[in-house]
């Protein structure tokens, strides 16, 4: 117990983000999330670090509570899901409530939707026009795939749940965000047990408090397998820690590969 | 906007749960979660409904905050991850802090670990014995796969992050939980657009306020595809709503399959 400290994860100047995945289907186990991993990697690439993800149901109180708590804790909040045309799409109305502003029908969004549907001979009905509803004061996030927009208000970015649509919205909004120092990561995969590398790994973590070193066990067909992942803003320090880990594995009689 | 209400999701007598997935690797996008879907389905089967999931880093303050907030809001909190032998495994110590109790070395866990490692000729070192650390007053959760136990304290159940180990721990603890009315769900998949079914679907939802009806769009190679999912505790009501949805799809000239 002595000597165990929380991993140091705070990199100076890092910009932080939280993600709120909205949808009953994610909580019932029916649908496997496909947005978190993509969003985390794209944000990492521009130096924005995801520090929390919440998965919540399509209920007004849950959306208001999560968004209002998280938007004071991180630089950016992203949401996915609940902005389609059906009765269970309540994200826009809930975000308006969270910000204490009215829900309005955004005229630019209406124009884009009407043009898009009319060009395709699709009926422009009230349900489809609901996709133009945004909190008052929100700015639209372009959707190059199917036009129905996302929006941002304050530091909250509201996107679609369908992965391909979320991805085009994310690319549309990324240039408008502040970018931080990008993080480097490197993995050493070895054939030792976690219980054998633990003490040495703890020493290496203590020597590099500015880095986050994680240990992720697995089993290969040949026996033990553990991935030792080093992450940080200082590429030289990451490289030094990786080198220390390789020496540790060799000293313990293990073999390694760097990924 | 008028007539849009939050979906009714509260079923009388339902037992609620929250899941906290602990691990930097989930937030960096390196690792895709494989525990949520399994846990949601196993809990649903015994009438326990997952109402929130949080994914948080391996940091003490994040674990304490999430666990202390959620354990007052739901019947059961489950955590996965951070109970191995390495320096980044800080879940047990953080849960002890959340409950304001000391971290102790559980004598029964020590005995099990020592027997297990000695039988396999594996060194019993301090790092491995750390896996016997639990908050004072916690009860062990058996691990039939690799012995290192999970534990529960209050209404918080702490499990491993490795999916196979999490699954055996979950099976070990499930009989000790209160079980609620089990939920029935049924899906109608049709070849219409969400914007076409939206108005009729809203009417059906309004007629069945005790059910949760969700609409999940996709695209097939033939064009539109939308899954309309009905979920609730009353199997007769679910069946009636499914029947209403089938009629709606037919009236709109669509084709459907029930899944």
Give helix % range of chain A: 25-40%
Number of strands of chain A: 12
Number of DSSP helical runs of chain A: 9
**Oligomerization category of the chains in this entry:** homodimer
> Which residue ranges of chain A are poorly predicted, with pLDDT under 50 across at least 5 consecutive positions?
1-9
Structural domain count of chain A: 2
Question: For the CA atoms, what is the radius of gyration of chain A?
Answer: 22 Å
What percent strand of chain A? 25-35%
- Cα distance, first to last residue of chain A? 31 Å
How do the strands line up in the largest sheet of chain A?
Answer: 2-1-3-8-7-6
Structural class assignment of chain A: alpha/beta
What is the ordering of alpha helices and beta strands of chain A? Answer: EHHEHEHEHHEEEEHEHEEHE
CATH homology superfamily name of the largest domain in chain A: MoaB/Mog-like domain
Query: What is the CATH-assigned architecture of the largest domain in chain A?
Result: 3-Layer(aba) Sandwich
Biggest β-sheet strands, sense, barrel of chain A = 6 strands, mixed
CATH class of the largest domain in chain A: Alpha Beta
| Mean residue pLDDT of chain A | 93
Largest interface: A-B, 78 and 78 residues
Structure write-up:
The structure is a homodimer of 259-residue chains. By secondary structure, the first copy, chain A, is an alpha/beta fold. Chain A has two domains: 15-176, Molybdenum Cofactor Biosythetic Enzyme, Chain A; 184-258, 2-Layer Sandwich (Alpha-Beta Plaits). Helices cover 36% and strands 26% of the residues of chain A. Chain A has nine helices and twelve strands. Chain A has a six-stranded mixed sheet with strand order 2-1-3-8-7-6, with helices on both faces. Chain A has a four-stranded antiparallel sheet with strand order 10-11-9-12, with helices on one face. In chain A, strand 7 and strand 8 form a beta hairpin. The relative contact order of chain A is 0.14. Residues 1-9 of chain A have low confidence and may be disordered. At the A-B interface, helix 1, helix 2, strand 2, helix 3 and helix 6 of A face helix 1, helix 2, strand 2, helix 3 and helix 6 of B.
């Amino acid at each position: 117990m002595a000597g165990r400290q929380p991993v140091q994860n705070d990199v100076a100047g890092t910009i932080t983000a939280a993600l709120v995945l909205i949808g009953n289907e994610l909580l019932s186990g029916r649908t496997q999330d496909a947005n978190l991993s993509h969003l985390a990697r794209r944000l990492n690439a521009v130096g924005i670090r995801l520090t929390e993800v919440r998965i919540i149901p399509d209920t007004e109180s849950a959306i208001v509570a999560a968004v209002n708590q998280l938007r004071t804790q991180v630089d950016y909040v992203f949401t996915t899901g609940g902005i389609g045309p059906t009765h269970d799409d309540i994200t826009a109305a809930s975000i308006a409530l969270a910000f204490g502003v009215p829900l309005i029908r955004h005229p630019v969004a209406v124009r884009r939707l009407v043009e898009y549907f009319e060009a395709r001979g699709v009926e422009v009905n009230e349900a489809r026009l609901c996709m133009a509803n945004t909190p008052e004061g929100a700015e639209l996030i372009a959707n190059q795939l199917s036009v129905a927009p996302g929006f941002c208000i304050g530091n909250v970015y509201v996107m679609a749940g369908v992965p391909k649509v979320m991805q085009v919205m994310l690319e549309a909004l990324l240039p408008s965000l502040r970018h931080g120092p990008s993080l480097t990561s490197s993995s050493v995969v070895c054939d030792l047990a976690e219980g054998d590398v633990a003490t040495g790994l703890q020493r290496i973590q203590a020597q590099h408090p500015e880095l986050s070193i994680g240990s992720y066990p697995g089993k290969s067909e040949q026996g033990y397998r553990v991935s030792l992942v080093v992450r940080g803003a200082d590429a030289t320090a990451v490289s030094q820690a990786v080198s220390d880990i390789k020496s540790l594995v060799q000293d313990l009689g293990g073999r390694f590969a760097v990924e």
